[in-house]
TrEMBL record:
<dbReference type="GO" id="GO:0030170">
    <property type="term" value="F:pyridoxal phosphate binding"/>
</dbReference>
<keyword id="KW-0663">Pyridoxal phosphate</keyword>
<dbReference type="InterPro" id="IPR015424">
    <property type="entry name" value="PyrdxlP-dep_Trfase"/>
</dbReference>
<dbReference type="InterPro" id="IPR051151">
    <property type="entry name" value="Group_II_Decarboxylase"/>
</dbReference>
<dbReference type="GO" id="GO:0004058">
    <property type="term" value="F:aromatic-L-amino-acid decarboxylase activity"/>
</dbReference>
<comment type="similarity">
    <text>Belongs to the group II decarboxylase family.</text>
</comment>
<dbReference type="Pfam" id="PF00282">
    <property type="entry name" value="Pyridoxal_deC"/>
</dbReference>
<keyword id="KW-0210">Decarboxylase</keyword>
<keyword id="KW-0456">Lyase</keyword>
<dbReference type="InterPro" id="IPR015421">
    <property type="entry name" value="PyrdxlP-dep_Trfase_major"/>
</dbReference>
<protein>
    <submittedName>
        <fullName>Histidine decarboxylase</fullName>
    </submittedName>
</protein>
<feature type="modified residue" description="N6-(pyridoxal phosphate)lysine">
    <location>
        <position position="236"/>
    </location>
</feature>
<dbReference type="InterPro" id="IPR002129">
    <property type="entry name" value="PyrdxlP-dep_de-COase"/>
</dbReference>
<dbReference type="GO" id="GO:0019752">
    <property type="term" value="P:carboxylic acid metabolic process"/>
</dbReference>
């Protein structure tokens, strides 16, 4: 066995601190807000074990948990999403866990259920379908990147006898497009597909859209009849600085009826066993510490920055686009010189930046400047004059 000698870790923490601060300003491609911080929680954070094992509705034997606050967090998110009083939920380790919980609940109710989701849904969905051994039908997207409801209706019609789980996305990972949930419900109604679940993956846009609805963008929350569950990430809009999420059901899932485990004294209703009690505190600070109006102001600020970014990029010849509600501005893949300096995810058709609250107009100015320089170099080297049009 290798013996681990104790080390002085101070210099490492210092180096990492500098590295993360320096890298942070160039990181405009992923949707993690970092404007809300948690220095006031440092004591609790650094010196206390907090384990929310089991059901948030049932404390269990242990006392070192934050389940009372977890329920408040679930209720605050459920209120924002217009969930009825019959709601049920818990704090997950991310949107992916919430979606998995909803899929598992659907499979328990309807063992023959087929999952339907658009080609622009999150890449983890295919893995979840495989893990849960549920068939997944991938639906095409329209020009805006939203699920093609006519294509969905066609696929539903081919399997009318089977239960359907539709995962609607708000918004998609690359373009922040929002699926038309009322139209999805209407398509199911038309075909009398009553054995169905409609789960909204609102990882990034679920809360912003519910807080500040945008003209022409359909509702994606529980105000839409037929939505059975929804999930949001905590580390995206709510700036928890570590991965977590909040899952909300309209009515309790089947798992909620599970009996108590004698060892923990609480029912095993979540996907994970032990669960962080710290992320709940951060969610609470973000939601209750700022309050609804401050979060609405954050949404408007992000949208304003995104409008600015889109216009600035277009002015230098970049074919940039955004949806009316979106923090995301997407454009054709930029030259590699740019992505070496800036954290900008790209596939072969599209790249994007996401104007989270900490992204400033001067960050955008620097990015646009570097984009222009990189395109100029490209032209000198005989490359394309302008990046190709984004597909969405
Ligand atoms: C549409 C969508 N769903 C799910 C996820 C994954 O969320 P989480 O990291 O909270 O599991 C993302 C992350 O970018 C996303 O864009």
């Amino acid at each position: 066995m290798t013996i681990i000698e104790p080390q002085d870790l101070g210099p490492l923490w210092e180096r990492l601190g500098h590295q993360f601060t320096d890298d942070g300003r160039q990181n405009i491609g992923f949707p993690g807000a970092t404007d809300i911080t948690f220095d006031d929680l440092a004591g609790l954070w650094a010196g206390t074990l907090l384990n929310n094992i089991g059901s948030p509705y049932d404390g269990g034997h242990g006392r070192n948990h934050t389940k009372g606050i977890e329920l408040q967090v679930v209720n605050m998110v459920a209120d924002i999403l217009s969930a009825p009083p019959s709601r049920w939920g818990y704090v997950t380790d991310g949107a992916t866990e919430g979606t998995e919980h909803a899929l598992l609940d659907a499979r328990r109710r309807f063992p023959d259920a087929v999952i339907y989701a658009s080609a622009a849904a999150h890449y983890m969905l295919a893995e979840l379908a495989e893990k849960l051994m549920m068939p997944l039908v991938v639906i095409g997207v329209d020009d805006g990147g939203r699920i093609d409801v006519a294509d969905l209706a066609g696929e539903l019609a081919r399997r009318r006898d089977r239960a359907a789980v539709i995962v609607a996305v708000a918004g998609t990972t690359m373009a922040e497009a929002v699926d038309d949930v009322p139209a999805i419900v209407a398509a199911c109604d038309r075909m009398s597909i009553n054995r169905r679940r409609i789960h909204v993956d609102g990882a990034l846009s679920g809360l912003p859209l519910a807080l500040v609805p945008a003209d022409g963008v359909p509702r994606v929350d529980f105000s839409v009849r037929g939505v059975t569950s929804a999930v949001v990430s905590g580390h995206k809009f709510l700036s928890t600085l570590e991965p977590c999420g909040v899952l909300v059901y309209r009515e309790p899932p089947l798992a909620a009826a599970a009996g108590r485990v004698s060892y923990t004294g609480t029912a095993s209703v979540t996907l994970a066993g032990s669960r962080s009690g710290h992320t709940t505190l951060k969610l609470y600070k973000s939601l209750a510490g700022l309050g609804t109006e401050a979060h609405r102001a954050r949404v408007r600020h992000c949208r304003d920055t995104a409008v600015y970014a889109c216009e600035r990029l277009r002015r230098v010849g970049v074919d940039a686009h955004r949806h009316p509600h979106a923090f995301t501005v997407y454009f054709p893949p930029p030259p590699p010189e740019l992505t070496q300096r800036w954290v900008v995810p790209a596939d072969d058709r599209c790249a994007h930046l996401i104007c989270m609250p900490q992204v400033t107009r001067s960050d955008i100015d620097r990015f646009v400047h570097d984009f222009e320089v990189a395109m100029g170099k490209r032209r000198l080297l005989g490359g394309r004059r302008k990046p190709a049009m984004a597909a969405t």
